[in-house]
Amino acid sequence: MKILEKYNESPSREYEEDILVEEILTDSHRLVLHNDDFNTFDFVIECLIEICGHTEEQAQQCTLLVHFKGKCTVKTGPTDILIPMHEKLISRGLTSEIV
Question: pTM for this structure?
Answer without folding.
Answer: 0.74
